Amino acid sequence: MPALGGTGALGRALSHRNARVFFGASAIAWTGLWIHRIAVAWLAWELTRSAFWVGMVAFCDLAPAVLFSPIAGAVADRVDRVRLTMLSQGAIAVQAGVVALLLAFGQLGIGLLLVLEVVGGIAASFSQPARQSLMPALVPRSDLPAAVACNSLCFNVARFVGPAIAGPLIAGYGVVPAIALNCLAYVTATATMPLLRVDAAQRRGHAPGASLLAETLAGLRYAARHPGLGPILAFAAVASVLLRGVQEILPPYVERLFAQGPDGLALLTASIGVGALASGLWVASRGRITGATGLAVGAVGAQALSTAGFVATDIFPVAMACGALMGAAGSVHGISVQTLVQSASDPAMRGRMLSLWGMIVRACPACGALALGTAGELFGLRWPTLAAMALALALVAWGVSRLPRMAAELEGGGGAQGGSDLARR
């Protein structure tokens, strides 16, 4: 983190003590999270040799966001966000520790693994909006866009760098150390929260003015009515279903398409990580919101084409190159969308909008993974994946047709004013 402090927008964000503590802990926690996901996916594959069960493990981890993320966003807008973050992150650490211990003593089957992944998914649904809603309290208002970009960079780079660490770790030492490392990562992140110097007024969104259900529904209505946020979130949700499932169930692709084991998984995930890191640094260092909508839409097209290349080839080095492009495009898309959501949301609705973004990046890949895993058992992995990529390109065409209106609402300032009006209704 300090090494990035001298570069443009990242330098502005990381010049503040609170931001350095926050983003350092975020990078550690999210890297541990993605290490854990690759580890349990490989474990499910070793236990069952079934793409369906690998998809089911991803589904149980990510799908709780459908039910709990909107509620968690409303909770984050009305309680002490620092305390909620500590409780939810602590729960994730405990879950990972239990999985590692049960596995180490040979007491973990596929059924119990599914149950524990649901528990971890619920905790993560509360952690995400609570933690990210703290960002406006960490830096001056003038540096908030840079902080949003840095936060997005941490998440999206960890989303690919974590698996790049997991591959060699699993190949050399097995699944248990990888899952235990996630436990340690979340213990570390939880321990840093008291180090943040956050004003009491910034720790809580607002005093409860209605029931939790009413505020949850108000957040959903706000997103649906917002002329910029509604379309970009819908676009990102469909794109995540179509594109992200591949990376949630990599082990079957690695073994069935390329006849590779854990070493091949390590090489592929490292390639994805390199691509994500390079593009993530570029997007975060731009330091401006102008053009972010176009990047969000165009990156989906690039990711669809690179994923199609990944499954169409039989040559593993070509697949690695496509993996790097997948990682680069996914990072550009994720950073751009999250920056737009943070910037265009009314402050009173920020926690709820971030919870919807959290639901998209968790629940939608889960649905895609389950669908691809099921189709993979019936038709093989290649053709269902190519069909999903064709649908993703059709989605890009729709996004391009809506691009001028979305960009005007999300980038031009009108969206923020319109969002304030919507929040008051």
Automatic annotation (TrEMBL):
Transmembrane segments: 21-45, 51-76, 97-126, 170-196, 228-246, 266-284, 291-312, 318-341, 353-375, 381-400
Main location: membrane
Protein name per its UniProtKB record: MFS transporter
Keyword Transmembrane helix appears in the UniProt entry: yes
UniProt membrane topology term: Multi-pass membrane protein
Keywords of the record: Cell membrane, Membrane, Transmembrane, Transmembrane helix, Transport
InterPro entries membership: MFS_trans_sf, TM_effector
Compartment(s) of residence: Cell membrane
Lineage: superkingdom: Bacteria
Lineage, broadest ranks: Bacteria, Pseudomonadati, Pseudomonadota, Alphaproteobacteria, Acetobacterales
